[in-house]
Amino acid sequence: MARHVGRGWYGRVIAAAMGVTAVAAATSVWTAQAGQTGGGAAAPRASARAAAPEARPVSVTIAHASDRGAHAVNITIDDGPDPVWTPQVLRVLRDNGVKATFCMVGTQAEAHPELVRQVVAAGHRLCDHTVSHDTTMDTKSPAYQARQIVDAERQITKASGGVRPMYYRAPGGAFTPYSRKLAASHGMRPLGWNVDSKDFERPGSDAIIATVERELPGGPTILFHDAGGDRSQTVTALRALLPRLKQQGYAFGFPVR
User: Any catalytic annotation for residue 225?
Assistant: First the structure.
């Protein structure tokens, strides 16, 4: 659920880092998630537990831009995975050849690891959306923020089979200097949005499309949801909107890292 990003900041910046171990994913899956390219035969599936590659720190500034340039769109999907709606969203994305960033709630990822793996296998990226989607996180202690962020990172990484989230999105935009610094130290770029589709309010698919088209000139990153209630309007809106954006010459990318 979206909340205005401009809330006040709380807490002081405290450096933190934790290692995460998980079952290693196949090299081809990791490459799709990390957005890397390369040739050669795919490596065999890992048969033993191994540490995921060490995360490299990234920028603490909140990302909005697209890695595909000025005339591009970043599709971001929040609050899942959900066993009803995530597969439908994945189908629409697949049918249109579009990759997206899925901002997952830790408990949802833990409950539905097969969906997390489907998201990764399809070439989409993962984003840490905390353990419990607390939109008042910016009023809580650094210790609480750390648990929400790091525990969700662990849950998502384990559910994915060893692929770490590449971004961190604060619930409702409740970022703090501390949470941004912590996420960045774990290799997760803080991720904002430019366009709130308002799909969470279920205003109708036509209204969702109209909101996106009206606000898209303000920036490329669009917020949708695949959980938190009936998301049929989101699915319908995406089905109509994605080909329309292609016809208008938009490229589809990922948020900058």
Answer: yes
Q: Is the dihedral of CA 122, 107, 194, 214 positive or negative?
A: positive
CATH topology of domain 72-252: TIM Barrel (3.20.20)
Residues 6+ apart with CB under 8 A from 217: none
* Residues with Cβ within 8 Å of residue 90, at least 6 apart in sequence: 118, 119, 122, 124
Check: CB of residue 79 under 8 Å from CB of residue 105.
Answer: yes
User: Residue 137's CB: how many other CB atoms inside 10 A?
Assistant: 24
Q: Is residue 3 pLDDT above 60, yes or no? A: no
131 Ramachandran zone, left/alpha/beta (phi>0; psi -120 to 50): alpha
Amino acid symbol at 208 = I
Q: pTM of this prediction?
A: 0.81
Q: Which of 138, 151, 225, 226 is catalytic?
A: 225
Per the residue annotation, which of 4, 78, 95, 151 is the catalytic one? 78
Structure confidence by residue, pLDDT tens digits, 88-122 = 999 999 999 999 999 999 999 999 999 999 999 99
Integer Cα distance of 67 and 256 in angstroms: 5
Query: Element (H or E) spanning 208, and its range?
Result: helix 205-215
Domain ranges of the chain: 72-252
**Residue 78 is a catalytic residue:** yes
Q: What is the distance between the alpha carbons of residues 20 and 54, in angstroms, rounded to a whole number?
A: 9
Are 188 and 173 contacting, i.e. CB atoms less than 8 angstroms apart? no
> Based on C-alpha coordinates, what's the Rg of the chain?
17
